[in-house]
Amino acid sequence: MQRRVRIAASVGLHARPAALFAQAAAAQNESVRIAKVVDGVAGEPVDAASVLGVMGLGAHHGEEVELTCADETSLDELAALLEQDLDKTPA
Description:
It is a single chain. Helix content is 31%, strand content 24%. The chain has a single domain (2-83), classed as 2-Layer Sandwich (Histidine-containing Protein, Chain: A), CATH 3.30.1340. A hairpin with a 2-residue loop joins strand 2 and strand 3. By secondary structure, the chain is an alpha+beta fold. Strands 1, 2, 3, 4 and 5 form a 5-stranded antiparallel beta sheet that branches. The longest helix has 11 residues, at 16-26. It contains 3 helices and 5 strands. Keywords: Cytoplasm, Phosphotransferase system, Signal.
């Protein structure tokens, strides 16, 4: 399953937001992949549980990413997380 989500974190997926997201992805029972979407096309996906992989996407505030996971509940949880400003949300 795939879902596209707009990044709400004011600093994008950098440092703290990337770490919080990767930690949540690692806690899922299924493997999760994330890719940056540019001009409507998803790029090369990376392991969403990897902080460096997530930061390496260079996804900024307001940009779109595509999540891929076999479990819809995991997708819902992770999409909801990205729709928050993780730089301001308490851990």
